[in-house]
Write a structure and sequence with these properties.
single chain, alpha+beta, Elongation Factor Tu (Ef-tu), domain 3, Membrane-bound Lytic Murein Transglycosylase D, Chain A, 3 domains, 7-stranded antiparallel β-sheet, two-stranded antiparallel sheet, 24% strand, elongated
């Protein structure tokens, strides 16, 4: 028989209060801005970054159920239920332990307590949390160079859109300047090979902008300002990618958690953690006291 993978998941908790769950949903997405033009079919859709994840738990505070292997709750109703709902009323962010994603800093959005006469052991609580960033770190990862490059890339794409086919630039496989800039943001957290390739691509794309300057810049005085902003931002991003540290560190997990949680802690991606720790690929949970290698960023 196949192993019961779900039985290996972490026990859920909010602000340290352990609870059972019968349904866990996670909703994610990206913020997008649609740039429209009256003379062009379709929109240029700009991805502005990942939205905060939304977690919804259905929690049965019913005294007739039994604990799972990794759960530590007891006396669900009324003791734990009242402690839990009181913790929900705290407006400050707290730590949510997701059974699959591990620890996430969240704020409570809403909750609903249902007393159903068909279940005599206690109520069921439906709760929604939204992932949040620490206030002093919320915008630490934003790059002014990226913002300048993204803005000027949109202007360059508008110029390219009206050029005849034989004058359109070769962007190294990318459909637009905006698409190329977005790829650089994504590669910033990857390992050496991907970064070195990105550094080389920047040189080739900048050379295409120079060619546009020689043709279009003669009839549009504002184009050189746009192209200079783009090239300056590209060179800054190129230097950042070329010098970014890829040293590796070790971390001993103090208690059971997930690969996703470890990756989030050290600003690594899950594939990066798994590439350095291939033995972790076999289980959704990392056992306590396990030594983990990670990329120092």
């Amino acid at each position: 028989m196949a192993a019961d993978v779900l039985s290996q998941l972490l026990g859920a908790s909010w602000r340290g209060i352990s609870v059972p769950t019968v349904l866990v949903t996670t909703k994610g997405g990206h913020g997008v801005v649609a740039h429209k033009r009256m003379d062009r079919d379709g929109w240029l859709v700009e991805n502005t970054g990942r939205n905060s994840a939304i977690f919804s738990f259905k929690i049965p505070f019913i005294n007739t159920i039994a604990r799972g292997p990794n759960e530590t709750w007891s006396e669900l109703y009324p003791k734990t239920c009242r402690e839990f709902t009181a913790a929900l009323e705290d407006r400050q962010p707290g730590t949510l332990v997701h059974p699959d994603y591990g620890e996430r800093l969240c704020s409570t959005v809403d909750w609903e307590v249902v007393l159903d006469p068909d279940f005599r052991g206690g109520p069921t609580v439906q709760v929604t949390w939204m992932e949040t960033a620490e206030e002093d770190k919320a915008f630490a990862g934003l790059s002014s160079d990226f913002a300048i490059a993204a803005s000027s890339a949109v202007d360059l794409d508008n110029v390219v859109g009206i050029l005849p086919p034989d004058q359109k630039p070769n962007l190294d496989g990318f459909g637009s300047f905006t698409e190329f800039v977005r790829s650089l943001q994504a590669v910033g957290d990857q390992i050496d090979l991907a970064r070195s390739r990105a550094v080389a691509k920047i040189d080739r794309v900048v050379s295409q902008v120079r060619k546009l300057e020689d043709t279009y810049g003669r009839v549009n005085a504002g184009f050189r300002d746009t192209s200079n902003r783009f090239i300056s931002a590209m060179h800054s991003m190129q230097q950042s990618l070329a010098t970014k540290s890829t040293d590796k560190g070790f971390y001993v997990v103090p208690k059971s958690t997930t690969v996703a949680s470890v990756a989030l802690r050290f600003r690594n991606s899950v594939p990066e953690i798994l590439s350095l720790n291939p033995l972790l690929a076999g289980s959704p949970v990392v056992s306590g006291h396990t030594a983990i290698r990670y990329y120092i960023k």
